[in-house]
Amino acid sequence: MEAIAPAAETFTAFKRSFFYGTRSNLNFKFIKHLTDAQADEFLQGLLQEIAGAYDAGNPDRIFSHVLKWQTAGYQDEKNFDYSEGPFVALPKPVKDATLALLTSSGHYVAGDDPQPFGEAAMTQQEAEERIFDFLKEAPVLSEIPRQTPLESLEVRHGGYDVCSSRADANATFPIKILAALEQEGKIGRLAANAYSFVGACSQRRLLKRAGPEWADKLVSAGVEAACLVPV
Amino acid sequence: MSVGHVARLLETAGIATVIIASRVFEKRMRMMTLPRVLLTPYLMGRPVGPPGNTNAQRASVMAALALLDSAQQAGTVESLP
């Protein structure tokens, strides 16, 4: 009896597999959002750039190629199109102001796990597998005392590759860079706490409740300016 | 989107904000008419600069702080080369 060969994978299925599928890759999940023609151009170009970079002894052209197509992958934005926005002028120069860091990188202090869904010690892999649950949940803000050693920081976020954040928190959570600038007098005062949350969350819950509460918290802490970092 | 919404809420509460974002998200940032945005030339997931590259990270933060002092209106977007 002749074996039945499995159906060939379509190119569209191949693209989708990078987005939380069998080839899940948070650096390249954008491939799903490209048209077939764009994905074809990206992948062929990537191979060309790898060989070209090797010959040139410089990998920068590979990075530029990926950045170009990552950008293309995030062009189909439809939500939250605001024609105007609030703006408050800082009443004093930054060198005299109190500034806080707040990021959506998913950092927290070891021993102070925000425990999403009530689960202790959720792994990065589990967070990736539950990304669509995160998108329905209210965000939780972690307070991170400014003197926290980087070795005491943990990071977990199902929406991006946290390897870079683990290698050097400053790539997404530049607390040590800000502390150095405070020492040099370029910031008046760095607030006692920095803050981080998992940006993959319910926007409605963020806007209705969590976000306004966070604003009150920072105002109460005397914060006059904030450096914000999305991932 | 999340950080854009936080920026809008903080500004409404009287806190001046600046966002450091990878230019991968330029369209998203511009659509939200955010107070001040610095776009950096780094890959998604490393918006301040590559791990271990303190010079690049410092340049990003310095440029962002300068925007806090210089921006005059919402929707101010600048890019690092």
Number of strands of chain A: 7
Query: How much is the average pLDDT of chain B?
Result: 97
Number of helices of chain B: 3
The chain pair with the largest interface is: A-B, 72 and 60 residues
Low-confidence stretches of chain B: none
Instruction: Spell out the helices and strands of chain A N to C.
Output: HHHEEHHEEHHEEHE
Beginning-to-end CA distance, first to last residue of chain A: 54 Å
- The coarse overall form of chain B would be globular
The proportion of residues forming helix of chain B, as a percent range, comes to 40-55%
User: Beta fraction of the residues of chain B?
Assistant: 15-25%
In N-to-C order, the SSE pattern of chain B is HEHEHE
Categorize the overall geometry of chain A. Answer: globular
Instruction: Please state the oligomeric state of the protein chains shown.
Output: heterodimer
Largest sheet of chain A: 5 strands, mixed
